[in-house]
Amino acid sequence: MKSRWETVLKDYVEAIVVALILALIIRTFLVQAFKIPSGSMEDTLLVGDHLLVTKFAYDIKIPFLDKSILRTGDPKHGEVIVFEYPQNRDQDYIKRVIGVPGDTVELRNNVVYRNGQKVDESYLKLDPTPGDKADYGPITVPPDSFFVMGDNRDHSLDSRYWGFVPRSYIRGKALLIYFSWEGPTDIRWRRMGSLIR
Predict the structure, then answer these.
(1) Cα separation of 27 and 71, whole Å?
(2) What is the percent of the chain where pLDDT is above 90?
């Protein structure tokens, strides 16, 4: 017969194992946490924002192999996505989708034109003096690829510099800010729980 401490220990071990399995399933298939390290998406996302990203928005992938087994949707204009940086897939980037496959994208004095139509970008943050890529294109987005840019347009290393994001590099769609701080004692309470648009 087991002693009381052995029974308690067994219950704790089982609870921990179940919690770890559930956490692995949630992280693999449902949501993953990401932290914003730079100001390229200001003012939509600030340095110190912590996000939840839905991993099933576009695909369900085989764990650890990163192979899609089911396509659940496609990124749409204006959505904020997390993806593997095409020049170093060990790094995650976050940007806004500007062009989808087949779109022709052009910038004229930092104004985006998609398929010849001016794009309303209410989220846009610009410097008084435009950056070196204020004029760009026109360029057509190839199949299974996306053209992305940061909201802080003059301070964003994006598709204008390194090209398109292959669909297979996309990790998910940014959903909400679950935590935000500027430092250990300066928590941005108002940002917590904000949906990312």
Answers:
(1) 18
(2) 70
